[in-house]
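Q: What would this complex look like in 3D?
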Amino acid sequence: MSENTTEPQLAVIILAAGQGTRMKSTLPKVLHSIGGRPLLGHVLATARGLQPESVLVVVRHERDLVVATVLDDAPDVVVVDQDEVPGTGRAVEMAIAQLPDFTGDVLVLSGDVPLLEDETLTRLIHTHRESGAAATVLSAVVGDATGYGRVIRDPAGGVERIVEQKDATGDEASVTEINAGVYVFQSAALRAHISLVGTANAQGERYLTDVVALMRDSQLTVGISRAPDAAAVLGVNDRVQLSEAARTLNARTVRRWQLEGASILDPASTWIDVTASLAVDVTVLPNTHILRATTIAEGATVGPDTSLVDCEVGSNATVRRADATLAVIGAGATVGPFAYLRPGTYLGDGGKIGTFVETKNATIGERSKVPHLSYIGDTTIGRGVNLGAGAITANYDDIAKHRTEIGDHVHTGSHNVFVAPVRIGEGAKTGAGAVIRKDVPAGALALSVAPQRNVEGWVETNRPGTAAADAAARSRSAQKADDGAQEQDG
Ligand code: UD1
Ligand code: CA
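A: Here is my prediction, written as structure tokens for the whole assembly.
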């Protein structure tokens, strides 16, 4: 709600009914994501930042899917269903009909223009109110105007009309000032002119942009506010523009965290979702993706080559060349290189998940280490534990998953298999190569491998004439000569 009662009220209409044919996608265009949020989500966030009286979203294509996303994000939004009459003009006409008593200003935003900054809109609204114009158009001067409506000015520099690319003459098409698809209208003037919009254009649609010329015909003033940054008014119509928008948004996000005190070495190869957060003195090395609700605490180092989805990284932790989802990494813990942390991984403070280790539904206690070549699933590990290289929890018996429990200060030998359900008691030890099928009591040494037996001469007897047999024979005769020499010495 606007605090200042002398200012006119504001309603925001967001256009999101189109299919987005140029995306060539089964997903409606406005639901494609950048920075971890749908295009429409960004526009909604911008709209709500202005604290308007009401926000209306016009839907049609895949309306249930779009509405679900909108209401999930913003339950107070008014959903307007556009009928079969196509065009941005029709979309606005149907939305304004939902506000019969509204007398304030109407801001129109496009669901596919996701990068607008608050200041740009604040300035647009301010310009509109200062000038007393019936409508004010947001424009930008762009390098490549392909696909945009062009702003045609009159000799006095005022806006005369907007012409769509498909309807433009050669001269008009060479204009580099484009319509951003964002406008403020006095509600009365909008109501009076929107119904006059026809379909005499290349696409046979009712264009909102035609309102400009119609207002001029009624001797009303149409103002213009030029956005300083052309990248911020980018409209996403295809997947090339989608990736451009993602890159621009990401550059902003990276810069924001840098200014908040994070060292991000390579902004171009670092991707941070708008929903993630980084504390001070975090270091992000190249090729790192920090996604969804990931939080990284003070002093932690992540990367290079790391992907974190919905993770919590503790202070001063180090995560190198790792792929982690829904994992919690404790303070001072180390992960990687080459680690795969699946959902439900909790690594305690000072713990380690090392090289070529996969974990899932696994709690690894404080200062416990799984350093090399292991799979740890459905497991609870206490504190101060060290698992030998090649530890495997056999958690799945073809029917169900079972848990492995490993008590505090257990040390296991290399290449162990823990056949779950199984429990290893506190302080116990296991031998190399053990297959642990039965619980191990606290403090016990568990051995499951038979004592080694050497069958002397087996290779020469069973594989005569092979390189192995020859090598064995040479070694044995050299050994004999050695032994003989030693006897003489002795
Ligand atoms: C529109 C403008 C163009 C401007 C550009 C800026 C018109 C006629 N043209 O062109 O001048 O330069 O945006 O990005 O307005 N939509 C509806 N209902 C419809 C059709 C579209 O809600 O019947 C929605 C779409 O979902 C989209 C937005 O309106 O979010 C813009 O539609 P789009 O088809 O992308 O228009 P452009 O051709 O980009
Ligand atoms: Ca568009």
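A: To summarize the key features: The pocket of uridine-diphosphate-N-acetylglucosamine (ligand 1) is lined by residues 15-18, 30, 58, 82, 86-88, 90-91, 110-113, 148-149, 162, 164, 178-181, 207-209, 235, 237 (CB under 6 Å). The chain has two domains: 3-233, 239-446.
Q: Very helpful, thank you.
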